[in-house]
Design brief:
Distance between the termini: 34 Å
Strand order of the largest sheet: 2-3-1-5-8-6
Structural class: alpha+beta
Order of helices and strands: EHEEEHEEHEE
Helix content: 10-25%
Number of strands: 8
Low-confidence stretches: 147-155
Largest sheet: 6 strands, mixed
Strand content: 25-35%
Number of helices: 3
């Protein structure tokens, strides 16, 4: 089975998604953000988090990870990479934050029409630091300490 972690960033335009994806591939210390197609009416851009040329996030998992449990065990060596990626995403998203969904490829996928739980960036980083991530996560993540900033062109 494959673990998918999908992120939607409302402040990144569809036209900029490819640039963001290419920039993430060239950066060290964060996961790759693979731009995903979505409906033309959808706001922002959608990405899958993955390492290198992989299409999933399975490389982040510890050997003890079990898709039948409520939480996934993360590889302690990979947790800093995921934490850095979430910090990068929060910075990229600005005050509006980003939406995250995670699920096993063949498992139930959190319904994007359902209202996601609100999660502060510090809470998400706490989970990652404890090397745990909810198996079926659907949340809007914001950085509560961030003041709203004006949108820059291209976003």
């Amino acid at each position: 089975m494959c673990l998918l972690i999908e992120v939607t960033i409302p402040t990144v335009s569809r036209q900029s998604a490819g640039d963001v994806s290419n920039a993430s591939a060239a950066m060290s210390g964060i996961l790759r953000l693979r731009a995903q197609r979505q409906d033309k009416r959808a706001a922002g851009s959608r990405f899958l988090l993955c390492e290198g040329d992989e299409g999933c996030a399975c490389s982040l998992l510890a050997e003890s990870a079990d898709w039948n449990l409520e939480h996934l065990d993360l590889d302690p060596a990979k947790a800093p990479l995921l934490a850095n990626t979430f910090r990068y995403l929060a910075n990229l998203a600005g005050a509006e934050g980003f939406e995250i969904r995670s699920a096993w490829l063949t498992g139930p996928w959190p319904d994007s029409r359902e209202r996601p739980e609100a999660l502060d960036l510090s809470q998400l980083l706490s989970l990652v630091s404890a090397c745990r991530l909810p198996t079926a996560l659907h949340a809007c993540v914001s950085d509560a300490g961030r003041a709203p900033s004006p949108r820059s062109p291209g976003r």
